[in-house]
Design goal:
By secondary structure, the chain is α/β, with parallel strands linked by helices. It has 14 helices and five strands. It has a five-stranded mixed sheet. A hairpin with a 5-residue loop joins strand 4 and strand 5.
Amino acid sequence: MLRKNKNTPNRYFSLILLISLMVLLSGCQLLSVFDFFSDDSSSEKDSKKSKPVETIYVQSITGQQLETVKQIFFQTIREQKEFSFVELLPESLNNVAVLRLEILDYTIWENEESREDGAAEQDATPDTFIRRNANVRIKVSLFNAETGEPLIRSIYSQPYQQIYVEDETKQNRAEKERELHRLLNVLLFRILASIYQDQAADDMMEFESGRGYNLISEWVYDLGDRRLKKGIRLAESGEYDQAKWIWQIILYSPGEDEPKDIYISNRASAYYNLGQLYRRDENWLEAAKMFSYANRLQQKRKYAHAWGESMQSWLEAEKEPPPKKTAARSQEVSTASMRKEMPSDEGMKKPELILYLEINNRLLLKAKELWPLDPDIKQLPSE
């Protein structure tokens, strides 16, 4: 017969109390670990890190064309939602920055130029064309209002150059003042993006798929050129060398039965896509060449913008010692060597207009035409 132990309930109670205490302690540890990895905690940290500035006090705007620039500036900042701009310094300086802008250049001018001597006369290209040059240049100083720490001290430029060849494009080109307004607006959004850290990430490369020339493209929907699209698929999967090779072939090998006007458009797209890859590699001069060649074939605002931005990036890179510049340039293929490597077809003849556009260097965008861009531009080798 078993004897009942009087201490048994106490032992059970002590055991239950010990287990409860262990569960409570382990729960606290798990809770603290969960908090450490929780999305709320990380998102709060990211928000503080990514957006140190919430309010910008506009202290001064000085320089050229002051009233015009002020008007466009305040119109532009009303279109964005990232910051609150004020003209009076707030009482609380938490997350407040002080902004000073100085307009260094706000210039636009045009030259009428002639075609190169000895150019082919069988095409319909006019004897003269208009070259428009413009540049907006702003010195930006941004300081932490609470500590006085400089956040941004830099000069931003938005160069632009375009050629107008046909009579229709000459007549329909934008008014000079409107062109400058547009360039200033683009530059101001670039400045705002540099302040807001989340927008400083690498932009996605944009490619052009060109124009198709089959029945579906003509009557249903233009899905683009199959060779250009194949190069895009390779580039988007990281196969950049293969994409370059395909686009280089397009430059000097028209597709079978490809109409002349579509071939011009697709060659321009191939040049533009190559420029995007060179810009990705920070080979700014080669990228600028590609965009200029694209613009020579089809005068698009997008091509001219890409050319100007590449030239500006090259100037900025020249002012700082780039450790990888020499290696990067040595790996690139120049346009001249590119031509030698392309497969040739003795029976293939290019349309006369395309041949003329290819050899007419007068229709290229030229950096030395942009004297107000930067004094260093004069040190460029002859083009």
